[in-house]
Write a structure and sequence with these properties.
- The protein contains 3 helices and 5 strands; from the N terminus they run H-E-E-H-H-E-E-E.
- It is an alpha+beta fold.
- The protein has one domain: PAS domain (Beta-Lactamase), CATH 3.30.450.20.
- The longest helix has 11 residues, at about 55-65.
- About 15% of the residues are buried.
- The model has no long low-confidence stretch (mean pLDDT about 95).
Length: about 110
């Protein structure tokens, strides 16, 4: 992921896979976050192999249906927002992207309705 400097500089892990689940790109933060699992060595492997059940089946279904999944997790006292969504190129389904970033344990919510 070196075409856009902001992709490396943002404090969020970005992982991009193709429609079959093969990881195409990971920014520096994603490589760091997944260092114990192989880091940059995960590129050209299948993202589904990185997810145990039931997450493997859930992600497989999301990819097949081209659906978005958004949730939070907390691990070792750190809360993260996880955003998983299809990406498109020229209107054609290209694959799936996952963006993960740290959020405060408690945070304000504003209804701008």
């Amino acid at each position: 992921m070196d075409r856009h400097p902001w992709v490396q500089g943002i404090d969020a892990a970005i992982t991009v896979c193709d429609r079959a689940g093969i990881i195409l790109e990971m920014n520096d933060r994603a490589v760091q976050n997944f260092a114990r699992d192989g880091g940059a060595g995960l590129i050209r492997t299948n993202v589904l192999d990185c997810h145990p059940e039931p997450a493997h089946s859930k992600l497989s279904q999301l990819m097949a249906a081209e659906e978005t999944n958004v949730y939070t997790i907390q691990k070792h006292g750190v809360k993260r927002m996880i955003y998983q969504a299809p990406w498109y190129q020229g209107g054609e389904y290209g694959g799936f992207i996952e963006i993960s970033f740290v959020i405060p344990l408690e945070m304000p919510h504003f209804d701008r309705g």
